[in-house]
Design goal:
The complex is a heterodimer of chains A (about 80) and B (about 160). By secondary structure, chain A is of the alpha+beta class. Helices cover about 20% and strands about 25% of the residues of chain A. The chains are: A alpha+beta (about 80), B alpha+beta (about 160).
Chain lengths: ~80, ~160
């Protein structure tokens, strides 16, 4: 699956990258990302995840071909 | 309407288009970059957005506000890219029959954009440091990253 990150997460990960592990849910993906880069775990805990431009919950089931977007807390305005 | 843009916000042009025969009140809020934050001197801000998601969310927020306050016009635009001190990072314009609705709706729109839309600022300070700043931290109080505490709810 393809992962895209924004804002502060770019300090921990490439802007876009592939994950080949078979992960079943967003919850597993969140944990996996924290293993890839433990320093990101604090911010990952408060990130939202989106698929096809819609936010998805932790129990969302990944298909393996999904494009997942990781959204840190907003800081616009 | 382009909700996210990397070009300078044209406040005057947007305001000129926000007059309506049934509206006796037009409110414009400009969220400007100020020269200081957390005790440091700000050089400039750099904004980033998930454009398609942020645009859709802003469109929905404007639509909600129009219905809730029976607005004649509701407009919002947010910058991406480099925004300098005194420049506008975000603009919200509301027009309604009377001022109470235009003020309340304007505050509702900017508050929801700030908390919910996937837009982020990175502050660049004159001392050469930078910081992704001003994150929504409502989850600390609500226990849920999707639940926010809004200023407009205090009104």
């Amino acid at each position: 699956m393809r992962i895209e990150v924004f804002a502060i997460l770019k300090e921990y990960f490439s802007k876009e990258f592939e994950i080949n592990e078979r992960l079943k849910t967003i919850e597993e993906l969140r944990a996996h990302l924290a293993i890839i880069n433990p320093a990101s775990s604090k911010i990952l805990k408060i990130c939202r995840f989106a698929v096809h431009d819609e936010f998805v919950a932790d129990h969302y089931e990944l298909t393996g071909t999904d494009n997942i977007v990781v959204i840190p807390p907003s800081s616009g305005g | 309407m382009e909700y996210i843009t990397n070009k300078d916000l044209d406040l005057v042009g947007l305001l000129q288009k926000a007059h309506h025969p049934a509206a006796g009140a037009v409110v414009l809020f400009s969220g400007d970059v100020r020269d200081n934050n957390i005790g440091k001197t700000v050089d400039f801000l750099e904004y980033e957005a998930h454009t398609s998601m942020a645009s859709k969310m802003i469109e929905n927020i404007l639509s909600d506000a129009k219905k809730r306050w029976n607005l004649n016009i509701a407009v919002a635009q947010h910058r991406t890219g480099k925004v300098r001190v005194m420049e506008a990072a975000v603009v919200v314009i509301t027009a309604s029959a009377h001022r109470a609705e235009a003020y309340a709706a304007n505050r509702y729109i900017i508050d929801r954009i700030k908390h919910e839309a996937p837009i982020w600022k990175c502050e660049f300070f004159t001392d050469g440091t930078k910081e992704w700043g001003g994150n929504c931290n409502c989850h600390k109080y609500t226990g849920d990253v999707n639940k926010h505490i809004y200023e407009f709810e205090d009104i």
